[in-house]
Amino acid sequence: MFPSTSRTDHVQLFTENIQPPGIGYGPGSCVLVGISLSNGRHLANLGSILMCGIAILVTIFLLLRSERKAAAVGRREMQLFLVGYIIISICEIFTVGGFPLDTNVRQGFTAVHVAAIVATLWILMLNAIVGYQLLDDGTPMSIGLIIGSAAALFIGTGYIALDTAFNWTGHFQSSHGGSNRNIGLYVLYQLCPLIFLFLYFVLESILVVRVLGERKPMIYLISAALLFAIGQIFNYVISVHICKPTKGGIDGAFFETFFTLLSVVAVWIFWSSITEVSFASISCNRGQIFQTWFIRG
Prior knowledge:
By secondary structure, this protein is mostly helical.
């Protein structure tokens, strides 16, 4: 539903070179070879690069469509999520895409990629809270709180990732040895996004089923969750089984990016399906949601 959490990204913070012959991580791993360029360089993941470009174009289209929905609740908040996904897709071109970049440049992109994933999924979770109308959506206070909190997560995660990569303070020096363990980065990059996704799904399900009394929008929400899960299965489970038979020509990243894009589109359709019509009767009174909750409960 949501931006990818590719295991490739945080590993790149620790390695000096991902160009072939590269380094395999873990038993049975496979290194992408991709397309050979000049001077022994390779464009490792052209499929993912092209899919990221498509994802950016599709998301821009959704941004423009959102702008036309003047009466939609949470329009600005949804647009913030879409902007975050565009940033993630841009970073993914240079990280998962395997461009032959200077090591420092690549590690910088990777740190921004990791931080953008955490901040964007935080914004997505807050989009679910916006539906409860605790604050009027689209107001400077609502937008300011979302941007401010997301920026704090982005800066904090980005700092840990950059310090891990460039060893500014030496605090994360141990991450560069052995199995590259970094508990702080693991929690922020792997666990927190899953928690944000879970809370988004639960809060939106309660809002749609218990408050609005609707069922059809749940088809879109469940579809988004399933598409995201399929993408992660390609990324974490099937990827190596694609990479080895193709001798490093392609892996699961292309399919992960594709299904993540479909998941984001499904989230947007879900939001669009419940805002202008279903929320029209309750958006004028933020206390009415809780009144409806208690009556239905």
